[in-house]
Each structure stands twice: as C-alpha cells, then as structure tokens.
Amino acid sequence: FYPYGICTDLLGHILVCSNPSFSIIFMSGDNTVTLLDQHGQFLFLILTERQGVGFYRGLCVDDENNLHVGQDNTNTVTVYKYLQ
Predict the structure, then answer these.
(1) What is the pLDDT of residues 24-59, one digit of tens each?
(2) I need a labelling partner for 6 at 20 to 30 A (CA). Which of 23, 59, 77, 79 fits?
(3) What share of residues in the chain are helix, strand, coil (percent, to 5)?
(4) Domain extents for the chain?
C-alpha cells in the first residue's frame, strides 16, 4: 500500500489513491481509490485499474461530492459521482 493522495468528503469519509505494494505481502495488483470511514476502516474500493483507468496520483472531493482524480498515465483529471 503506497498512498499518493488523500482527502476527506463532507461526511467524514477518507479517500486514498494508492499504488500496489510490491513487497512480499502483495495485497492488490491494482492502482486503487479506496473509501475509508472516519476511523480508517475499509468501506469499499471506488476505482480500480480493472475499470479502465489507473495510475491515480491525486484526488479531491468538491462540495457536491464529486470525486476529481488525477492520473499520470493520461495526464488527465476525471470527475466521478461516487455518492448519490
């Protein structure tokens, strides 16, 4: 687990974008954006490479709960609606 970016939303959730761990304990083969509760407990994966994007390097959440994610493989910022 190698976090590249971290932010919080209006509900107190913690969002982390990270790369896979290349250590002996290999937890995930994907770059991910993970949602944690306010105590740091895992809730679910919001994004993974398997969804067609990856190399997440930064993220933020705006006042309307839109998730903005920067990717260095495409030099783009993509906006997702992750909470309805």
Answers:
(1) 333 445 688 899 999 999 999 888 877 766 788 899
(2) 23
(3) 5, 50, 45
(4) 2-81
